Amino acid sequence: MKKSKTGFFCQHCGYMSPKWLGKCPSCNGWNCFAEELIVESGSDSRAEMRFDGKPLPIEDIPITEGKRTITGIAEVDRVLGGGIVAGSAILIGGEPGIGKSTLMLQMMHNLAEKGLKVLYISGEESASQIKLRSERIEAISKNLFVLVEVSLEKMLEQIKIISPSIVVIDSIQTVYSAELVSAPGSVGQVREASSRLILFSKKYGIPVFLVGHVTKDGSIAGPKVLEHMVDTVLYFEGDSSHSYRIVRGMKNRFGPTNEIGVFEMRDKGLIEVLNPSTFFLAERPQNVAGSVVVPSLEGTRPILVEIQALVSSTSFGTPRRTAIGVDYNRVSLLVAVLDKICGLHLGGSDIFINVAGGVRVEEPAVDLGIVAAMTSSFLDKPIDARTIVLGEVGLAGEVRAVSQMDVRIKEAARLGFNRCLIPKTSTSEMVKIAKMEICKIGFLKEMLENLF
Fold this sequence. Notes:
By secondary structure, the chain is α/β, with parallel strands linked by helices. It has three domains: 3-40; 69-274, Rossmann fold, CATH 3.40.50.300; 279-451, Ribosomal Protein S5, domain 2 (2-Layer Sandwich). Helices cover 26% and strands 27% of the residues. It has helices at residues 74-80, 100-113, 127-136, 152-162, 187-204, 225-229, 276-280, 328-342, 367-379, 405-414, 444-451, and strands spanning 3-10, 16-17, 33-40, 89-94, 118-122, 144-148, 166-170, 208-213, 232-238, 244-252, 260-266, 269-272, 291-298, 301-313, 321-324, 349-355, 387-389, 392-393, 399-400, 419-423, 437-441. The strands form five sheets. The protein has a nine-stranded mixed sheet with strand order 6-5-7-8-4-9-10-11-12, sandwiched between helices. Helix 8 crosses helix 9 (367-379). The longest helix has 18 residues, at 187-204. The chain starts with a strand and ends with a helix. The model has no long low-confidence stretch (mean pLDDT 86).
């Protein structure tokens, strides 16, 4: 006999409470609790999924990771750390319509063309809709199998029958298990479906891609614990007003994190952008005040981005501060440093900061670029088009060193930049880079002397 009881689950993080709460004590979300039925089964419904392992000395454990499966899409292979690892669970999140299903179909088509049997399971579209998209992006192969199903038990049954090399679940929010009474997409269903699919993947060595939606705050819908269960978490980023798409690795147990893959959305699907720096700087204006180029580092890849600033006198009592693509609090900090240390009184000015192309940069290495762009706009003096700046700015106005300086400067030199402002505390190895004039600065006042 099954004993059932109810509990209240946070739909954002999965926190369970015996009673309804207005605010989640775990993620601080408001009005996010929903009542779900908890079924306690007397028998283990996942008994067949047990590993039945025994403790072994770590030196006696064999390494069975084996060779990675190359997807045929270089940008995806980069983010995954060199390909797909057997038995890995990969979560791909992104906003609706950003291109998750399109990328999955393109990837599965490439693998099917290599002779691998792949299974694409959809719970959101009919088979004819998937066929229409596949014909549009030219992803038709006899080894690409399509299954329209939302029942978890039926999915596992068909996977055992077909025995594919790779499985895609699109999306995990549509999957439900008959053992739970709650609706598909609820915390209990998402957690149950994900755990059983991941156990199946680990036991039989079949990689599984789980496609997930994101909420309005940018996090993957469903319990936050889902990100801890999988091996790799990829976020699909982009803006409908731009043609580019970025796949960013937020977690990877088999490779580096924060790697990105850049794509361009076209009528035939997603096209790889092998040189993102040229792509983001293609429409950069020349000899315009408030524009500067900064070499940012995404994972192991250097990408040159253009930071734009507009400083103008305010028409209201309270000046506006707007930051797109960079941290707003960081911009406020740098404005205070410019006012206090350099004597540039920006307190009565509206300040707008934008990273051209819609890309977002988080690292402190772009601090000097933000300061240079604001100063250029405030003084109405353009910065030389072939000059780059990079460095972290401290509260005392000092310019601090950043990591992997040589990689950043070599990428700038390859694209034709011939002058670079870097922190004085950087190593002297950078001076040896050919065709690049290195200017070392220790404080922001030295930056003003070298640029203006």
